[in-house]
Amino acid sequence: MQPPTHTTPPPPRGDEGELYRRHHRDLERAVARSVRAPRELIEDACQMAWMTLLRTQPERLATFAWLRRVAINEVYRLSHIERRDARLDATSDRCQASADPNALEKQLLAREALHALSTLPERQRRDLTLHVAGHSYTEIAELTGGRTYTNVAKTLRKAKARIRLLQMQSELESPTSAEGERQGANNPGRPS
């Protein structure tokens, strides 16, 4: 049986209050100079850095530099979450605002799109899914293993071309079947 993995946090060193009094304003200023973000987000990130300091009790050799790095990373993380939430909110607002009478047709088109997506190779499918979700080429490159911007662009270009090809094939097949249905409806005695 494996021993429990619970680790107890290191005990406070007693200098945390003094560190906070000495560095908290400078930390906020330094982070604000390093990143462009709303003031509230920078304050939240700095507070998270202080909480991390209390929880992990790192070495005190370069405390300010450590706090600054943790706070900047937190700003990036929080900014990413805010951008993603804003995109999701905008998408849901658009969906709710368009109480569309053609909802069934749109669902069928969505199913066709999902089918087309499922026919793509793994990398093209993953990249196209991330792009449709609102990620930039640079973000996709970072999320999928440090690839280059050009590699992501090439993969997306291939994926989009393949989807267009499938759409054209689908459109070529659809009119003939729709024509046959119309002929069958006009001549009920004739089998279609």
Automatic annotation (TrEMBL):
Residues 169-192 are annotated as: Disordered. Residues 112-163 form the RNA polymerase sigma factor 70 region 4 type domain. Keywords: DNA-binding, Sigma factor, Transcription, Transcription regulation. It holds the Pfam family Sigma70_r4_2. Belongs to the sigma-70 factor family. ECF subfamily. NCBIfam families: sigma70-ECF (TIGR02937). This is Sigma-70 family RNA polymerase sigma factor. The lineage of its organism: Bacteria, Bacillati, Actinomycetota, Thermoleophilia, Solirubrobacterales.
